[in-house]
Amino acid sequence: MSPLRELAHAKINLYLHVTGRRDDGYHLLDSLAVFAGAADELRLEQGAGRGGHVGLRIEGTFAPGLQDDCADNLIVRAGALLRAHVGPERAHRLPDVDIVLRKELPVASGIGGGSADAAAALRLLLKAWGLSISRADLMALATRLGADVPVCLDQMPARMEGIGEELTPAPALPPCGMMLVNCGQSVSTPQVFKSRAPGFTPRAGLPARWDMLADMVRDLSAQTNDLQDAACAICPEITTVLDALRAAPGCRLARMSGSGATCFALFDSPEAAQAAVPVVRQGKWWVWAGDLCRTGARLESPTDSLPA
Ligand code: C5P
Asked: Which of 32, 37, 298, 11 is CA-nearest to residue 154?
C-alpha cells in the first residue's frame, strides 16, 4: 500500500464478554478481535498551506449523511490530537493535508469503522508529517479517540481487555471465510451498554492456536457476545439477520459483532462464504463475504523521540 493510502479494515468481535465496570462508567471487556478484508480507504492529498490543518472529504457508498470537515469526525479529531501532541511550535510548520475517505463500511455498526478510520488517519499523518512517536504515546492517543482505536492501529487479531486498550496477540487462527451482514439500522453503543442485563461474565480460556476451524468454532460457541440480546431488543432486525446467517449453507457460527447491528458468520473458506451470499441477501441489507485480513498494518519501529 502506498504511503499516502491506508485501508481501515472492519473489526469483528468473535466474542465479547463484559467482565466489569469502571467508576467512570466504561465497561471492562474480554474480547477477541479479528479484521475482515472489508475496508474503508483513506487517501492523503497535500494541502497548500502550513499549520498541520487536516481537511476531510468523504465519498463512497456510506458517504451520504456524513459531513465533510466535521470537527466530530474521528479522522479530524485524530489530526487535532496529533497536532496537540507535537506542540504549537512544531505543528505550525507541518504541511496542511486533505484526507479523502472512501466510506465503504456501514456507520455506527459494531465493526469499528470510525475507529479504524481514526487509526488509519494516525498512521497516514505520522508518515505524511515524518513524525515518529513512542508506541506508548501512540496507544495513549488512540485510546483518547476511542476504546476500539488501539486495536485498529495494527489491524492484527488480538485479545482486547481493559476497556479495549489492553492488547495481547490472539491465538493463531485457522483458514476460514467470513460473511458480514448489516440490516441498515445504526445502534447506539452507549444505549446498548446501558440496557444490557446486569452481571458480568468471566474471561474466556483460550488456546495458543487453532489449527482447524472446527476447533475454533467449538471454543467460540462456548463464548457469547454479552451485548447481543440488548442490541436485538433495540433493533429486532438483528435477530432476522442472525437467523438468515445460521440458515445459510456452510455457516459454522453466526454472532453479532461489537454493539451491533452488524453480524458475522464463519465459513470453511472465503469461497464458501461468497457462495452463500445470494441465499442470505435480503432487501437493502449490506452484505460482504471474503477472507480475514491477515497482514495487519503495524507501524515500523516507532521510536521514543520526535525527529528534530
Ligand atoms: O470509546 P468509545 O467512544 O468508542 O465508546 C463509546 C461509548 O460506548 C462510551 O461512551 C461508553 O458508553 C460505551 N463503552 C463502554 N465500555 C467500553 C467501550 C465503550 O461502556 N469498553
From this structure: 298
Tell me the CA distances in angstroms from 224 to 43, 202, 227, 256, 287, one per residue in order: 37, 11, 9, 9, 23
Q: Which three cell numbers stand for residue 269?
A: 473458506
Residue 301: pLDDT over 70 = no
Tell me which amino acid residue 22 is.
Answer: R
Return d(Cα 270, Cα 186) in angstroms, integer.
Answer: 26
Q: Which residues participate in the annotated binding site for ATP?
A: 106-116
> How far apart (Å, rounded) are the C-alpha atoms in residues 270 and 34?
15
Catalytic site includes residue 11: yes
- Is the entire prediction scored with pTM above 0.90? yes
Complex ipTM more than 0.90, yes or no: yes
To the query of whether residue 284 is one of the catalytic residues in this protein, the response is no
164 within ligand 1 shell (Cβ under 6 A): yes
Residue of the CA atom closest to atom 4 of ligand 1: 146
Max Cα separation, the chain? Answer: 59
Q: In sequence order, what are the residues at sequence separation of 6 or more whose Cβ sits closer than 8 angstroms to the Cβ of residue 274?
A: 177, 289, 290
163 C-alpha to center of ligand 1: Å? 8
Nearest to 103 by CA among 291, 306, 286: 286
Nearest to 183 by CA among 101, 243, 229: 243
29 lines ligand 1 (CB under 6 A): yes
* Structural domains of the chain ordered from first start: 5-168 (3.30.230.10), 177-290 (3.30.70.890)
Tell me, using a 6 A CB cutoff, whether residue 163 lines ligand 1: yes
